[in-house]
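Loading example: each entry is read as four labelled lines plus one structure line.
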Amino acid sequence: MTSMTDEREVIRRPADRRERILDAAEKLARRGGYFGFSFRDVAAAVGVKSASIHHHFPTKEDLVVALTARYRDRFLESLGDPLQPGAARRLADAYRSAVGTRDQMCLCGLLAAESDALPEATRGEVGTFYDANIDWAARALGGETERAEALIAGLAGAVVLARSKLDPGIYDRAAAALLSGVSSGHR
Amino acid sequence: MTSMTDEREVIRRPADRRERILDAAEKLARRGGYFGFSFRDVAAAVGVKSASIHHHFPTKEDLVVALTARYRDRFLESLGDPLQPGAARRLADAYRSAVGTRDQMCLCGLLAAESDALPEATRGEVGTFYDANIDWAARALGGETERAEALIAGLAGAVVLARSKLDPGIYDRAAAALLSGVSSGHR
DNA sequence: CAGTCCTTATCTATCAAGTGGTAGGTTAGA
DNA sequence: TCTAACCTACCACTTGATAGATAAGGACTG
């Protein structure tokens, strides 16, 4: 019971502290972007001091890179297999998860918009997110890379528009139009 | 010669100083967003002290609101008449102007992504930008509001993707697909 | 025309708060 | 005892914003 992983809810739970830091930082970064939150904001949300954040992630760039990589991996995993039926619909649903909830903008959409001002490693992670998204969509569309780019662009833009207008309907209508356009123009 | 407006390049040119402040601030905001630049950054770019910026725009929100309103008005003016031939192409070209040049992201695309963390008045200006864009596109498409939303979303997203990947081709291909999708799916 | 007054635009100097980051000490578990 | 995790306490710097001085120019007034 006291070996292996400690399941008691004691004061310290070092194992998942790192994950909780990433959780808090992700929440903040999805609201205000790279420059819209501070180490102290993260620390306060987790319930520790800012020096502890530096212990796990020496610099802000380290933190945001880790954040973005985790976000990307989880997002891609949630998409499943692009060759299984209903792939385009699943993609649209995944993007939709960043609509409707306040302060939960798509992390990579926000960081991509700030791209010019980001540290290089961070920009790289964001680029990988969209590379992987386009690749996934292209496979789902039978290798039509150009239509995949247009679809990802459209979904990403629709998230921003719908959030900015506080109207999820914009996303749903735009996604429907994009999906019908994608399927009608080809195949 | 010394009456009316003074055309000499003397030390003080108060008339256009305000515009020059907006020019500098726009450049900075299009790079790093609302939280990515400071009054001192703007002041240094213009060649004055930060207190002088506060004289023209008391708060940062005032500055960014003025910035966004000017950007929106200019953008809409550049689109011309949505009922004239080639309107969709003109729209795509207007969005394209924010692709390829470094540090010149579409201001409203960036601010919309940061929307959750912006002061309310600023968010309002950004919302108006997209309202007007969708309205313009809907008129260009013969009243098809849903397709207009999808088109604007697609173009806005394509700008972000192309910039983030430093590949203008992404924008061009996505724009072409969006325009063909828009015209093929209907009419 | 001279004198003064007001407005505009700018400056210097400063503020309290917040920034990313560091040094070094403390504590608890393996 | 060693190490990871966390702390207190700080650092130099930046942030948005303010107060008050200065200077220039236009506009009334005598």
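Chain B touches chain A through 49 residues (CB under 8 Å).
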